[in-house]
Amino acid sequence: MDPKKMNRKRFQVAKNDLGVELTKLTNASMDLNSSLEKANELFDNMLKNIKDRQADIVKSCRKLENQYGEAIRVLDDKPNASGDESGGENELLPKGYAEDVKKFVTDCRDSFNGHGVIMKNECSAMEDLFKSYNNMLQVSIDELKNREVVIGNLRRTLRCKLSIFGRTEVEYSDSK
Predict the structure, then answer these.
(1) How many domains does the chain have?
(2) Per its UniProt entry, which superkingdom is the organism in (predicted)?
(3) Which of 10, 76, 110, 168 might form a disulfide with 6, Cβ 3.0–4.6 angstroms?
(4) Cβ burial 86-95 (10 Å sphere, 16+ → b, else e)
Protein backbone atom coordinates (compact mmCIF):
# COMPACT_ATOMS: atom_id res chain seq x y z
CA MET A 1 0.00 0.00 0.00
CA ASP A 2 1.35 3.39 -0.95
CA PRO A 3 0.51 5.76 1.94
CA LYS A 4 0.92 8.83 -0.30
CA LYS A 5 -2.10 7.76 -2.35
CA MET A 6 -4.37 7.07 0.66
CA ASN A 7 -7.13 9.40 1.66
CA ARG A 8 -7.13 10.71 5.22
CA LYS A 9 -9.77 8.22 6.48
CA ARG A 10 -7.96 5.16 5.09
CA PHE A 11 -4.72 6.53 6.47
CA GLN A 12 -6.22 6.84 9.98
CA VAL A 13 -7.62 3.28 9.81
CA ALA A 14 -4.25 1.98 8.59
CA LYS A 15 -2.47 3.94 11.33
CA ASN A 16 -4.75 2.45 14.03
CA ASP A 17 -4.42 -1.09 12.62
CA LEU A 18 -0.67 -0.63 12.35
CA GLY A 19 -0.53 0.51 15.98
CA VAL A 20 -2.25 -2.69 17.10
CA GLU A 21 -0.05 -4.92 14.92
CA LEU A 22 3.18 -3.17 15.91
CA THR A 23 2.28 -3.46 19.60
CA LYS A 24 1.60 -7.20 19.19
CA LEU A 25 4.80 -7.58 17.17
CA THR A 26 6.87 -5.70 19.76
CA ASN A 27 5.46 -7.81 22.60
CA ALA A 28 6.01 -11.06 20.69
CA SER A 29 9.57 -10.00 19.86
CA MET A 30 10.29 -9.16 23.52
CA ASP A 31 8.78 -12.51 24.58
CA LEU A 32 10.97 -14.37 22.09
CA ASN A 33 14.10 -12.55 23.27
CA SER A 34 13.18 -13.29 26.89
CA SER A 35 12.65 -16.97 26.01
CA LEU A 36 16.03 -17.08 24.26
CA GLU A 37 17.76 -15.52 27.29
CA LYS A 38 16.08 -17.99 29.68
CA ALA A 39 16.89 -20.92 27.38
CA ASN A 40 20.55 -19.86 27.23
CA GLU A 41 20.69 -19.68 31.04
CA LEU A 42 19.02 -23.09 31.30
CA PHE A 43 21.33 -24.63 28.69
CA ASP A 44 24.35 -23.12 30.45
CA ASN A 45 23.26 -24.67 33.77
CA MET A 46 22.55 -28.01 32.12
CA LEU A 47 25.96 -28.04 30.43
CA LYS A 48 27.68 -27.11 33.70
CA ASN A 49 25.85 -29.99 35.41
CA ILE A 50 26.90 -32.37 32.63
CA LYS A 51 30.50 -31.12 32.87
CA ASP A 52 30.48 -31.54 36.67
CA ARG A 53 28.97 -35.03 36.38
CA GLN A 54 31.58 -36.00 33.77
CA ALA A 55 34.32 -34.71 36.10
CA ASP A 56 32.88 -36.85 38.93
CA ILE A 57 32.88 -39.89 36.65
CA VAL A 58 36.49 -39.28 35.59
CA LYS A 59 37.45 -38.86 39.26
CA SER A 60 35.77 -42.20 40.04
CA CYS A 61 37.64 -43.78 37.13
CA ARG A 62 40.96 -42.54 38.49
CA LYS A 63 40.12 -43.87 41.94
CA LEU A 64 39.24 -47.23 40.39
CA GLU A 65 42.50 -47.21 38.41
CA ASN A 66 44.42 -46.69 41.67
CA GLN A 67 42.52 -49.54 43.32
CA TYR A 68 43.29 -51.84 40.40
CA GLY A 69 46.93 -50.75 40.68
CA GLU A 70 46.98 -51.60 44.39
CA ALA A 71 45.55 -55.07 43.75
CA ILE A 72 48.13 -55.64 41.00
CA ARG A 73 50.88 -54.39 43.35
CA VAL A 74 49.84 -56.96 45.97
CA LEU A 75 49.89 -59.75 43.36
CA ASP A 76 53.33 -58.57 42.19
CA ASP A 77 54.42 -58.74 45.86
CA LYS A 78 55.60 -55.13 45.83
CA PRO A 79 55.27 -52.85 48.84
CA ASN A 80 53.03 -49.82 48.52
CA ALA A 81 54.47 -46.31 48.70
CA SER A 82 53.97 -45.99 52.47
CA GLY A 83 55.32 -49.47 53.25
CA ASP A 84 52.09 -50.53 54.97
CA GLU A 85 50.55 -53.92 54.42
CA SER A 86 47.48 -52.54 52.69
CA GLY A 87 46.98 -49.25 50.89
CA GLY A 88 43.27 -49.19 51.74
CA GLU A 89 40.87 -50.29 54.41
CA ASN A 90 41.54 -53.71 55.92
CA GLU A 91 38.54 -55.88 55.19
CA LEU A 92 38.44 -59.53 56.02
CA LEU A 93 37.18 -62.08 53.56
CA PRO A 94 33.66 -63.32 54.24
CA LYS A 95 33.58 -66.76 55.90
CA GLY A 96 32.66 -68.62 52.70
CA TYR A 97 35.62 -67.11 50.87
CA ALA A 98 38.11 -67.39 53.76
CA GLU A 99 37.95 -71.15 53.40
CA ASP A 100 38.04 -71.14 49.57
CA VAL A 101 40.24 -68.37 48.16
CA LYS A 102 40.03 -69.90 44.70
CA LYS A 103 36.24 -69.33 44.68
CA PHE A 104 36.79 -65.74 45.88
CA VAL A 105 39.30 -65.06 43.08
CA THR A 106 37.03 -66.66 40.47
CA ASP A 107 33.99 -64.68 41.65
CA CYS A 108 36.00 -61.42 41.68
CA ARG A 109 37.39 -62.07 38.21
CA ASP A 110 33.89 -62.84 36.89
CA SER A 111 32.55 -59.74 38.60
CA PHE A 112 35.30 -57.56 37.09
CA ASN A 113 34.58 -58.99 33.65
CA GLY A 114 30.89 -58.14 34.09
CA HIS A 115 31.78 -54.66 35.33
CA GLY A 116 34.00 -54.16 32.29
CA VAL A 117 31.17 -55.12 29.94
CA ILE A 118 28.77 -52.79 31.74
CA MET A 119 31.29 -49.92 31.70
CA LYS A 120 31.98 -50.40 27.99
CA ASN A 121 28.25 -50.52 27.20
CA GLU A 122 27.46 -47.47 29.35
CA CYS A 123 30.34 -45.44 27.88
CA SER A 124 29.17 -46.37 24.39
CA ALA A 125 25.56 -45.50 25.29
CA MET A 126 26.70 -42.15 26.72
CA GLU A 127 28.68 -41.40 23.57
CA ASP A 128 25.68 -42.31 21.38
CA LEU A 129 23.43 -40.16 23.56
CA PHE A 130 25.77 -37.17 23.30
CA LYS A 131 26.11 -37.63 19.53
CA SER A 132 22.33 -37.88 19.18
CA TYR A 133 21.75 -34.75 21.24
CA ASN A 134 24.58 -32.97 19.44
CA ASN A 135 22.97 -33.78 16.07
CA MET A 136 19.53 -32.76 17.31
CA LEU A 137 20.89 -29.53 18.78
CA GLN A 138 22.78 -28.75 15.56
CA VAL A 139 19.58 -29.18 13.53
CA SER A 140 17.77 -26.96 16.03
CA ILE A 141 20.52 -24.31 15.93
CA ASP A 142 20.52 -24.38 12.11
CA GLU A 143 16.74 -23.88 12.10
CA LEU A 144 17.07 -21.05 14.63
CA LYS A 145 19.74 -19.37 12.48
CA ASN A 146 17.47 -19.68 9.43
CA ARG A 147 14.59 -18.12 11.38
CA GLU A 148 16.95 -15.35 12.50
CA VAL A 149 17.82 -14.55 8.86
CA VAL A 150 14.16 -14.58 7.77
CA ILE A 151 13.12 -12.39 10.71
CA GLY A 152 16.06 -10.05 10.04
CA ASN A 153 14.95 -9.65 6.42
CA LEU A 154 11.36 -9.01 7.51
CA ARG A 155 12.60 -6.53 10.12
CA ARG A 156 14.53 -4.57 7.45
CA THR A 157 11.53 -4.58 5.10
CA LEU A 158 9.22 -3.39 7.88
CA ARG A 159 11.70 -0.72 8.95
CA CYS A 160 11.79 0.69 5.40
CA LYS A 161 8.01 0.63 5.09
CA LEU A 162 7.63 2.26 8.52
CA SER A 163 10.00 5.03 7.44
CA ILE A 164 7.86 5.70 4.38
CA PHE A 165 4.67 5.52 6.43
CA GLY A 166 6.13 7.85 9.07
CA ARG A 167 7.08 10.44 6.47
CA THR A 168 3.57 10.24 5.01
CA GLU A 169 2.01 10.90 8.39
CA VAL A 170 4.23 13.95 8.78
CA GLU A 171 3.09 15.19 5.36
CA TYR A 172 -0.57 14.79 6.37
CA SER A 173 0.10 16.51 9.70
CA ASP A 174 1.84 19.39 7.96
CA SER A 175 -1.03 19.86 5.52
CA LYS A 176 -3.66 20.38 8.24
Answers:
(1) 2
(2) Eukaryota
(3) 10
(4) ebeeeeeeee
pLDDT in tens, 144-173: 999 999 999 999 999 999 998 888 755 555
**Dmax over Cα atoms in the chain, in whole Å?**
110
Query: Residues 7, 82: one domain?
Result: yes
**Same domain? 43 vs 15:** yes
Q: Are residues 108 and 83 in the same domain?
A: no
pLDDT in tens, 67-104: 999 999 999 988 776 666 654 555 677 888 888 889 99
Beta strands in 52-172 (DSSP E): none
- Domain hosting residue 21, numbered range: 1-91
User: From CA 84, how far away is CA 63, in angstroms rounded?
Assistant: 19
Q: pTM value? A: 0.67
